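Quarterly update from the structural biology core.
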Amino acid sequence: MTTATPDVLPHMDAVQAALEAAGLTVYLGGTPTADGWTAPDKYAVLYPDPGTAVRESLADERTDFECTMQVTCVGSDVVRALWVAARVRRALSAPLTVQGRNCWLPEDLGGPPVQRDDDVTPPAFLVPVQYRICSTPA
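Predicted structure, tokenized:
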């Protein structure tokens, strides 16, 4: 039985949908760069890697999938950044819904301590947290 090679995009969409369902403002791959854009006081930025189609058996059918997605939790102060991180953790504590796939629970890989970004005005506080996303054909 041959199944289509899995793709990162539906998995990325599922992570974004889970975060938005938790009430978070989510940007993909960075924040808007348009003139006049003002950062909200708290938000998340999703940075997915392209993922890997993994062999399900010695037959070399690459139908299993895994990737790492970083969610950078941003706040105007430390408390807001940690608030976003807590909402992300709660949102990703259940299996994702990806059509035609059985998703494992996202695995929380943690991240570094809160960091202050003085390259923006006003300064922002960042908590990058990584998750391993895995799925198999349904």
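The two ends are 13 Å apart (CA to CA).
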